ATP-dependent RNA helicase
Amino acid sequence: MAPTSARHGVKDAGYGRMTQVQEATLPVILQGKDVLAKAKTGTGKTVAFLLPAIEVLSKLPSSQRSQLRSSINLLVMCPTRELANQVAVEAKKLLKYHRSLGVQVVIGGTRITQEQRNMQANPCQILVATPGRLKDHLENTPGFSTRLKGVKVLVLDEADRLLDMGFRRDIEKIMAATPKDRQTLLFSATVPEEVRQISHVAMRKDYRFINTVKEGDEETHSQVSQMYMIAPLDLHFSILYDVLKKHVADDADYKVIIFCTTAMVTKLVAEVLSQLKLNIREIHSRKSQSARTKVSDEFRRSKGVILVSSDVSARGVDYPDVTLVIQVGIPAGREQYIHRIGRTGRKGKEGLGLLLLAPWESHFLTSVKDLSVSEAVTPSVDSSTQTEVKGALRRVEMKSKESAYQAWLGYYNSNKTIGGNKSRLVTLGEEFSRSMGLAAPPAIPKLILRKMGLSKVPGFRST
């Protein structure tokens, strides 16, 4: 049973009953054990590690607390800036009854000097961070390594993704700067070999492995109806617009995420749909961190909105009440498909997932054939919808189309199945250009063609 202040904090934060992952991990973490927990996103795992860690901190003797006043006692590492901000928001809710504890976030994409000033002015006990920026502070912020010597609990959230993103060296460097007798908690949607390896390095030998994912229920959510549509590229914008219009008409509280292949394709899709007078927000890696945070916070709070996103929002970010997730174009792999779908059907609510592919992308379906993805009837788009879409495409700047074409080409060129046949890639590029309303594909700078290994392929125009 969680202590009284913790129970009040949980209740006030809007949590009723404990979720499965919380029930399974809380008692073990409160015993001071190191834990590797396999848990899907959207199952309440953030509270599962924050709540007991806050209890540990609140019980530190006052003498130790004043002595370590400027020490960081709880360090949480997250793979993305969005997830770090979200964890910090949850922590602040849970700290309502622990006024003496403070939270700060340090993430890339913001000015390091501003973070240094904030940390100096308001030393906090709880720090939520992305590994790259954490390493920057370790190397460049005076006194930061001393503050890390106070870490009592270290959390790696989305451990598999932290490692996928190449943060292993940074993580090992940061771990080495924290005390050996700390408590370590790893939460991960999957437990591949690399997560096992880091758990052996990071945790005590008697660590507990807690699996809250049932066999055969690896990552997908049973309450998400998953469908796919196969249609020629030149119909994709019209089909997307048709599907969105119907969904918006059917559900006044609609909340949609559209995932695209790259940041520049995301920008193009957002611009086209905005021209069609839909309520659009866009988020991708080319946006500034402050713009991404603003859009992310607004989408979390709002209803009646459509977020067009690159994979910056695919995993770990908890947007409540998402009614529909659309994936346009081939996902990078099965894992990515699953994590994107995981943005809907969260916390027991129903959701809908739609994958929109061109006929030459249909081979992807074999990698998800065990996930109950069924074929949806492709809508017969009426001529007025097609006319509206053509008009919207005409109003989008040529620069956006050029950037999207270049990014699209780079993405499909790096796909082993599609990019293997370069002359076919030329034809597919022409098809994509036509889908944007262009008579011919834009020219590409020679240097970029060379980087893609396409400079000697006939059919690509260069500048």
Observations:
- Confidence is low (pLDDT under 50) at residues 1-7, 216-221.
- The chain is about 45% helix and 15% strand.
- The first helix runs from residue 4 to 12.
- The longest strand covers residues 224-230.
